[in-house]
Design a protein that fits this description.
Largest sheet: 5 strands, mixed
Distance between the termini: 91 Å
CATH topology of the largest domain: Rossmann fold
CATH class of the largest domain: Alpha Beta
Strand order of the largest sheet: 2-1-3-4-5
CATH architecture of the largest domain: 3-Layer(aba) Sandwich
Number of domains: 4
Number of helices: 22
Number of strands: 15
Structural class: alpha/beta
C-alpha cells in the first residue's frame, strides 16, 4: 500500500458507513460472548434482512464498551439523533429491538427510553460512568468492528504510522519523551527513554515484543484492548519498531485469551494484505513482520527476562540484570518489551501530537489509565480516566460504590504486586508516585473493591499464596521468604499468631524486597505490608491473648 492509498480506502469506508441511516454495534468481547452476544448479532442481522433494511442498517460486533456488569450491550447510532445504549440484551429480544427502536428511528421518530419488553434496558449516557471517562486507549471500543481493517482506517487507523515514516528514529523517540508516556504494565518507566536506549544499540537484528501475558487476578484491561482494537496495538508496535530500527516483532499473549489471539492473527493477515506488515511497508522500502507466541499462564513471565526465556522455549525464569534486554534480549539481540496498553497509546500520540497527550494527566503521570473495576462494586467493568482523577471519583462516582448498604472499606490496586488502600485515602489523585506513597502501585490497572465485611488479613493471605504458588523458585529470598511469610499469615488467620509473628513478617518482607532476583519476589510482600500499615488492628484482633505477667 502507498501512503495515499490509505486516504482513499479510509474515505471509501467513511462514505460506505455514511450511506447507512443507522448502525447497531453489539459487544463481541469474551465476557459478552459468554452471555450470547454472537447470537444477538446473528438475530439482529436476520431481523434486518427480513424487513429488507440491509441498505439502511448496519449490524456489527465491537469491542468492550465498559459496563461489563450490564452486558451484553448494544449501541444504536441513528444518523439524525442521539445514540442509545441498551443493556442486558438477550438473543430473543432482537425482533423487539428492531420493531420498537430501529424501525421508528428510521421513520424519523425520536427515540429516548424504550418501553415494553425493552423497558429498563436503556442506559443513561449522561451518567457519571460515561461522562467522567476520557477514552484514548478505548476510543474505538464500541465504535469500530475489530475484525475489519477498513473500519480502523475510517477512524484514523495507521495515520500515526504514516507520520512516523516521515520522521527519523530519533525524532520518534523524542516525540514519545515529550508526550510523557510511561509504561502501563508495572513501575511506569518512561516509554520514550526505553525506546531511545534500544535505538542507540547497534545491531542488525532487533526485536519489539508486546507483553500480552496479563496475569493479575481481576485484571482484564489488556485482553479487552487486544480483542476490541487489535490494529491499534499492531500500529503501536510498528511505530515502536521504526523508532528503534527494529526488524522483528513478537506478540506474547497468554493462551487463556483465545479470542485475543484469534483477533490479532486476523488483524495481522489483513495488515499484510494491505501492505502494512511485511516487505516494503507503505511503499517505503522498510520491512517488518510479526510472530505470535502463547504464554502458558505463568505469572512470573510478566517479568521481561522471564518472558524472553519463555519465547525462546525455555523455562520462564528471570535472569540477573545487567545486561538489560535493550542490550541483550531475545536470542541475545537488543529487545524492547512494552505492554498492550502502552502500545495502544502510541498511534494516538503520533496522530495528535505529544502536546495533546501531555496535556492530559498530572505533571509526572501523563495521559489516561484504563482500570478494571471489580469486586464489591455496582458498575463492574472497564473505565478509562485521566491521571489525576481521585480514587474516590473512580470508586464512588464512576463505580457507584458497592451498590448495597455496605460501605467500601478499601481497594486493592496493582494485583499481587500492589497494595491495599483504605477508604480514608480515597481523595488521593491517581498517579504512579501517589500510589507508591500509599504502599501500593499502578500495576497493569486492576482495581478490586472490598466492603466492610471483607477481611484484609485473609485477602493479604490470598495474594501471598498466589505469589508463592507463582514463584519460579530460582532465588531463595522469594522461594523461602514467601513460604515463611505465608506460614506466619496462616497462623494469624487461624487465631494462633502472636505479636512476634507480625514483627517477623516485616523482617522477612524486608529481606525479600532487597534480595529477590525479580519484581515478583520484590513486590510479593506489598499486599501484606500495606494491609498491616493501614489495618493493623485487624491483624492484632486475631492474635492469641497475651500471656499474663507474673506479679
Amino acid at each position: 500500500m502507498k501512503p495515499e492509498d490509505l486516504e482513499v480506502k479510509a474515505a471509501a469506508e467513511i462514505a460506505k458507513q455514511q450511506a447507512f441511516d443507522l448502525r447497531l454495534a453489539c459487544c463481541s468481547s469474551t465476557g459478552c460472548q459468554s452471555s450470547g452476544s454472537l447470537a444477538i448479532i446473528d438475530n439482529l442481522r436476520a431481523e434486518i434482512k427480513a424487513r429488507q433494511l440491509e441498505a439502511r442498517v448496519q449490524v456489527c460486533g465491537t469491542g468492550c464498551m465498559g459496563l461489563c456488569s450490564n452486558g451484553p450491550l448494544v449501541r444504536m447510532v441513528p444518523k439524525s439523533q442521539k445514540e442509545v445504549l441498551l443493556s442486558d440484551i438477550k438473543p430473543e429480544m432482537a425482533a423487539t429491538l428492531v420493531d420498537r427502536m430501529v424501525v421508528p428511528a428510521l421513520a424519523g421518530e425520536k427515540i429516548e427510553r424504550p418501553g415494553g419488553a425493552l423497558a429498563g434496558h436503556s442506559l443513561d449516557l449522561d451518567a457519571p460512568f460515561f461522562t467522567m471517562q476520557h477514552r484514548v486507549v478505548l476510543e474505538n471500543n464500541g465504535r469500530t468492528d475489530p475484525e475489519k481493517i477498513e473500519d480502523y482506517f475510517a477512524h484514523g487507523g495507521y495515520r500515526g504510522l504514516k507520520r512516523a515514516l516521515t520522521m527519523s528514529a530519533e525524532e520518534i523517540c523524542q516525540e514519545m519523551l515529550a508526550s510523557g508516556l510511561r509504561g502501563r504494565g508495572g513501575a511506569g518507566f518512561s516509554t520514550g527513554l526505553k525506546w531511545d536506549l534500544t535505538r542507540k544499540v547497534q545491531s542488525d537484528v532487533k526485536y519489539v515484543i508486546c507483553n500480552g501475558d496479563e496475569g493479575d487476578p481481576g485484571a482484564f484491561m489488556d485482553r479487552s484492548v487486544l480483542e476490541g482494537d487489535p490494529h491499534a496495538v499492531i500500529e503501536g508496535m510498528l511505530i515502536a519498531a521504526r523508532a528503534m530500527n527494529a526488524t522483528n516483532g513478537v506478540f506474547y499473549i497468554r493462551a487463556e485469551y483465545p479470542l485475543a489471539v484469534e483477533r490479532i492473527e486476523k488483524a495481522l493477515r489483513q495488515a499484510r494484505v494491505a501492505g502494512l506488515v511485511g516487505k516494503n511497508i507503505f511503499d517505503s522500502g522498510w520491512a517488518f513482520d510479526f510472530e505470535i507466541r502463547l504464554g502458558a499462564g505463568a505469572f512470573v513471565c510478566g517479568e521481561e527476562t522471564a518472558l524472553i526465556a519463555s519465547v525462546e522455549g525455555k523455562r520462564g525464569t528471570p535472569r540477573p540484570r545487567p545486561p538489560f534486554p535493550a542490550v541483550k534480549g531475545l536470542w541475545d539481540q537488543p529487545s524492547c518489551i512494552n505492554n498492550v496498553e502502552t502500545l495502544a497509546n502510541v498511534p494516538r500520540i503520533l496522530l495528535h501530537g505529544a502536546k495533546w497527550f501531555a496535556a492530559l494527566g498530572t505533571e509526572k503521570s501523563k495521559g489516561t489509565k484504563v482500570f478494571a473495576l471489580t469486586g464489591k462494586i455496582e458498575n463492574n467493568g472497564l473505565v478509562e480516566v485521566p491521571m489525576g482523577t481521585t480514587l474516590r471519583q473512580i470508586v464512588e462516582v464512576i463505580g457507584g460504590g458497592t451498590g448495597t448498604e455496605r460501605a467500601v472499606k478499601a481497594i486493592q490496586t496493582g494485583g499481587p504486586s500492589g497494595g491495599m488502600i483504605p477508604e480514608r485515602e480515597f481523595d488521593t489523585p491517581v498517579s504512579y508516585e501517589n500510589l507508591q506513597q500509599l504502599g501500593s502501585m499502578m500495576g497493569s490497572g486492576g482495581l478490586i473493591v472490598i466492603d466492610d465485611r471483607d477481611s484484609v488479613v485473609e485477602l493479604a493471605r490470598f495474594y501471598l499464596d498466589f505469589c508463592v504458588d507463582e514463584s519460579c523458585g530460582k532465588c531463595a529470598p522469594c522461594r523461602i521468604g514467601g513460604t515463611q511469610m505465608l506460614r506466619l499469615l496462616d497462623r494469624i488467620v487461624d487465631g494462633n499468631g502472636t505479636i512476634e509473628d507480625i514483627k517477623e513478617i516485616r523482617k522477612v518482607a524486608k529481606a525479600m524486597q532487597k534480595a529477590s532476583l525479580c519484581a515478583l519476589g520484590q513486590t510479593a510482600p506489598n499486599p501484606t505490608l500495606s494491609a498491616i500499615r493501614h489495618f493493623e488492628h485487624e491483624f492484632t484482633e486475631r492474635l492469641l491473648p497475651a500471656a499474663p505477667t507474673k506479679a
